[in-house]
Amino acid sequence: MYSLLFLATVSLAFSLVLTPLIRNAFLRIGVLDAPDASRKYHDRPTPRAGGIAIALAYTLAFALLLATRLNAGTIIWDSLPLIAKLLPAAGVIFVIGLLDDLMGLRPLQKLAGQTFAAFVAYLGGIQIVAV
Fold first, then answer.
1. Is the pLDDT of residue 124 over 80?
2. In contact, 76 and 83? CB cutoff 8 Å
3. How many other β-carbons are positioned within 10 Å of the β-carbon of residue 21?
4. Which of 3, 4, 95, 120 is deepest in the core (most CB within 10 A)?
5. In angstroms, rounded to a whole number, what is the distance separating the alpha carbons of residues 47 and 31?
6. Measured distance CA(117)–CA(93) in Å, rounded
7. CA-CA distance, 52 to 59, in Å (whole number)?
């Protein structure tokens, strides 16, 4: 229980710190999503790639949890082989999302990337088994 509370609190704190930093960096370099009349209704240009802050926040929170002596840290250590199998697929999903934020991908391109990520997970030995 305390481990989940720790994980939630730490990831929230990292998100609160990292999101403005990433936002300001993307504002400075001009990677913005401009409003248009058809799909994007925000009032002014908005920085893209907010997923970077979220991915960093949960990665850092899990790393910090592993460094502590809380029970969930040992559960995660025991699950490292499974995490190692899922990590490449998660990386593909992250890259697809980042490319979509930076360049804009078509739906079919995103679907192809997600299908590739599922294939990578399958090659890593991840399977869904009906019980």
1. yes
2. yes
3. 12
4. 120
5. 6
6. 6
7. 11
One-letter amino acid of 75: I
Predicted structure pTM score: 0.76
Q: Residue 6: which pLDDT band, with cuts at 50, 70 and 90?
A: confident
Backbone torsions φ then ψ of 46, nearest 5 degrees:
-120, 135
CB atoms within 10 A of CB 94: 16
pLDDT of residue 72: 65
Q: Is 47 helix (H, G, I), strand (E, B) or coil?
A: strand
- The residue written with tokens 């993307």 in the block is 26
Q: What is the CA radius of gyration of the chain?
A: 18
**pLDDT at residue 45 in the model:** 75
| pLDDT tens profile 77-107 | 777 788 888 899 999 999 999 998 888 899 9
d(CA 49, CA 87) in angstroms, rounded, equals: 20
User: How many Å apart are CA 125 and CA 35, to the nearest integer?
Assistant: 42
